[in-house]
Design brief:
This protein is an alpha+beta fold. 20% of the residues lie in helices and 23% in strands. The chain has seven helices and 13 strands.
Length: 280
């Protein structure tokens, strides 16, 4: 059900529970690096374009790149410490933090066993694929010559699997499309969208965790001003702490969008002292 109301019923800083997550806005970027902050041995460094987090064995890095062209986050795993990339995943600037943090949390948990705990016969393995997980949540499938798409029930988000031969080198260099992609957008033609991409060697369970976060029906918390204005007619909200009062939960105000993005300095100060790390 879409929630609408006359403008001005709520203050811009009113905390709301919002659904669906893929239209809720960026959210609190700090949740993305919380998994790395809370994991022993991850190092951090301030770079020219943002923050760099390096795993204890220096076999993976997660970069926060707010000043780059597309902003957002990029995760890379290497074949050897800080050597040749094995795979990468990227999340554009406005990707909801819950989706990115689901990926970084799973990555931090999986790296100590080199993902074996989450693979077949591992103690934390889950049998379903990203596509199966979405199908279980009633996402609709559209099979084309080049892609297998799965659309959200409201049509404002999708998960895509690229079919056919993939050139690994071009994919890793960003010169060709990644195997998996997801996005959220209310206007498929002209609207601003967020997107996330995963190359073909990305461990499947990591993509699955991102897909589960993408399709979650649980509400997420945002201030009213943190919800993109263009998305307001398409989200359902409940003010935090007001229970299920339908009159209150239908109240929305048309206000400019602001983002909850911590500064580089505050993010760095909030993290523990670094372990082994190198800038790239």
């Amino acid at each position: 059900m879409t929630a609408t109301s006359p403008s001005g019923d709520l203050a811009p800083d009113t905390d709301l529970l919002v659904r669906p997550v893929y239209l809720a806005g960026r959210g609190d970027t700090a949740t993305v690096y919380n998994a790395l902050r809370d994991t022993q041995g991850w190092g951090k460094a301030i770079t020219a374009t943002g923050l760099m987090f390096t795993s204890p064995r220096q076999d993976a890095q997660v970069a926060y790149l707010p000043e780059s062209r597309y902003g957002g986050w990029k995760a890379i795993q290497y074949r050897e410490p800080l050597g040749t990339p094995l795979w990468w995943a990227s999340f554009s600037r406005n990707t909801p933090a819950e989706i990115t943090s689901a990926f970084t949390t799973a990555l931090a948990e999986g790296l100590p066993s080199n993902h074996r705990d989450f693979l077949h016969d591992g103690p934390r393995h889950r049998p379903s694929s990203p596509s199966e997980a979405l199908a279980d949540r009633a996402w609709q499938t559209d099979d084309t010559a080049m892609y297998l798409y799965q659309h959200s029930p409201d049509g404002h988000a999708y998960f895509g699997l690229r079919k056919g031969h993939l050139d690994d080198y071009m994919e890793l260099e960003g010169e060709g499309p990644a195997q998996w992609t997801m996005y959220g957008c209310v206007d498929h033609v002209n609207g601003e969208r967020w997107h996330a991409d995963f190359t073909s060697a990305t461990p499947l369970y990591l993509v699955r965790e991102a897909a589960l976060a993408l399709s979650s029906t649980e509400p997420v918390e945002r201030p009213l001003s943190g919800i993109p204005e263009r998305n307001l007619p398409y989200v359902t909200v409940t003010p935090v702490g007001t229970g299920t009062d339908p009159r209150r939960s239908a109240a929305l105000a048309r206000t400019p969008n602001t983002s909850q993005t911590p500064s580089i300095a505050s993010a760095a100060a909030d993290l523990p002292a670094p372990g082994p790390s190198r800038r790239r």
